[in-house]
Specification:
alpha/beta; 23 strands; five-stranded antiparallel beta sheet
């Protein structure tokens, strides 16, 4: 495999369950990914990130792992995975595994042993607490309800920051840490090239006390988190040529600099989600909201500048398996023209930023939210819980469906749209979740044929990153931050300057007075004439010296 600085890489995220089904059972599988590797090679990506493929009861789509060393039979076998790694490597594509080491499924052998008795050697692998007066603390689970579950057999509660079937691991126990390092090393020896660590900044729990809010302050970026991550690094991937990224929940720039500054030997890079909460009215996810454009720009730029200046590294993205489709969210999918224009501009605006870009399956062809019409079409546990909760609060079903249409994780989990045949070419059977209705127009086959498609824009952007050091190493200069429609910034590296202008509105916009746009066009979407940029237009210009 050809070696290059991992920082120049572009990562493609695959949600295996919805990517490509070769068996006809309605769920995607590893052989389905192998079948599409040539397509991913054509696109030009460097890494595939797979959401969890381990043995799991799938209460939380695989983020509830019951055996870290086995492949979920829904996806295939260990041999299938071995073949995927081999075939990807032959195409100069690396494989990044998603691993959850903050918690396990309650079906994991460690937990099964832990609940047998208070004297079990595995009891201290988790957080069990006795309490006479209900749950030990008032902390709330991320999926709703209290974060402690009562176990009748041993008359104690266990901590689950997520679903009741996801018990938090006790990282203060050195045995737990050593057991987890062995697991990570198993996959390194297997041949994978990197890891995405799920909710990794929650692994260090502080005091177990009641909270004035929901408890986050006691476990987010907890007291020993940096010590633990350095130890993980030193015991596993630290001396290997591997890319790691940590999913950071409700974190800060200062912590993320520490997580990702190479001198500290923790992780390569960090995901944060602050920019994806700009359509949460008063911080509330389950409410209808419009994007606050000024806030979006401010957050993106604060993180860009803060991480860059601190010597850390950003993971940059619009979409993943937990987020709605960006073209429906921050773009406009009300017509085909607007969908294409806004999808391209969103791509350009993001891929010119500093950090490692992540593309989520289907984003590269401008897939939209499915716009489901009934609750029966939803599958996601978080969305169904939200539906029942909002209903109990007196909201109408129609209003709740409008919220889910905006916010549900299922928006990104509908099948990948390969062609215009039934089920978008995803499966020959009945899909586990419905396909978006627009698959006959929006699919890979169509996009490949059309040289002006969203797909070809993504391909061009990936190529630009590989070829131009300014995108990887250059600093960033925000401009016109108070503008109501335009996202404008410059990148500088050595003696080079690139200007990026992206119009986030569907209307033609006059460019600011004094903005010099003379120079060579690097990439363009829409038109720039007479100092005006078309609706959802974008342009990148190498400024003339």
């Amino acid at each position: 495999m050809k070696e290059q600085d991992w920082r120049k890489s572009v990562v493609y995220q695959i949600y295996p369950k919805s990517f490509n089904d070769t068996t006809g059972n309605g769920e995607g599988d590893l052989k389905g990914i192998i079948e599409k590797l040539d397509y991913l090679q054509f696109l030009g990506i460097d890494y595939i990130w797979l959401t969890p493929i381990y043995e799991s009861p799938m209460n939380d789509n695989g983020y509830d792992i019951s055996n870290y060393l086995k492949v979920n039979e829904n996806f295939g076998t260990l041999d299938d995975f071995k073949l995927l790694v081999k075939e990807a490597h032959q195409r100069n594509i690396k494989i990044m595994m998603d691993i959850v080491i903050n918690h396990t499924s309650t079906e994991h052998q460690w937990f099964k042993e832990a609940i047998k008795s208070k004297d079990s050697p595995y009891r201290d692998y988790y957080f069990f607490r006795s309490s006479e007066e209900g749950p030990p603390t008032n902390w709330e689970s991320k999926f709703g309800g209290n974060a402690w579950k009562y176990d009748e057999q041993t008359d104690e509660y266990y901590l689950h920051l997520f679903d009741v079937t996801q018990a938090d691991l006790n990282w203060d126990n050195p045995e737990v840490r050593q057991a987890l390092y062995k697991i990570v090393n198993y996959w390194i020896d297997f041949g994978v090239d990197g890891f995405r660590f799920d909710v990794i900044n929650l692994i260090s729990k502080g005091e177990f006390k009641d909270s004035k809010k929901i408890g986050k302050e006691f476990y987010t970026d907890g007291p020993r988190v940096h010590e633990f991550l350095h130890e993980l690094n030193q015991n596993t991937f630290g001396n290997k040529d591997m890319m790691t990224v940590g999913e950071m929940s409700s974190t800060t720039i200062d912590h993320c600099v520490k997580y990702s500054n190479p001198n500290r030997q923790e992780l390569s890079s960090v995901f944060n989600f602050h920019h994806l909460k700009v359509d949460y009215p008063d911080g509330e996810k389950w409410a209808k909201g419009k994007m606050d454009f000024h806030q979006l720009k401010e957050i993106l730029m604060n993180w860009q500048l803060g991480i860059y200046e601190g010597g850390g590294w950003n993971a940059i993205f619009w979409c993943n398996h937990d987020q709605p489709r960006v073209v429906s969210r921050f773009g406009d999918d009300s017509s085909e023209v607007l969908r294409q224009a806004s999808a391209k501009t969103l791509a350009i605006a993001l891929h010119m930023l500093q950090g490692t870009p992540y593309i989520y399956q289907g984003e590269e062809i401008g897939m939209t939210n499915p716009h489901f019409k009934s609750i029966e079409e939803y599958r996601d546990i978080e969305s169904l819980n939200a539906f029942h909760y909002l209903k109990s609060q007196g909201y109408s079903e129609q209003h709740i469906l409008e919220i889910l249409d905006q916010k549900s994780r299922d928006n990104s989990r509908t099948p990948m749209q390969w062609d215009d045949s039934e089920n978008a070419g995803f499966t020959s059977g009945e899909s586990w979740i419905a396909t978006a209705d627009n698959y006959q127009k929006i699919n890979v086959e169509q996009a490949m044929k059309d040289s002006e498609s969203v797909l070809h824009t993504y391909k061009a952007l990936i190529n630009l990153r590989h070829q131009n050091d300014i995108l990887t190493y250059g600093n960033i200069e925000p401009m016109y931050m108070d503008h109501n429609q335009l996202f404008v910034y410059r990148r500088h590296y050595r003696h080079q300057t690139w200007l990026i202008i992206a119009n986030f509105s569907k209307d033609e916009v006059t460019l600011p007075d004094g903005l010099d746009i003379s120079g060579d066009t690097i990439i363009q979407n829409g038109t720039v004439n007479q100092h005006k940029i078309s609706g959802f237009g974008a342009i990148v210009i190498e400024i003339a010296k």
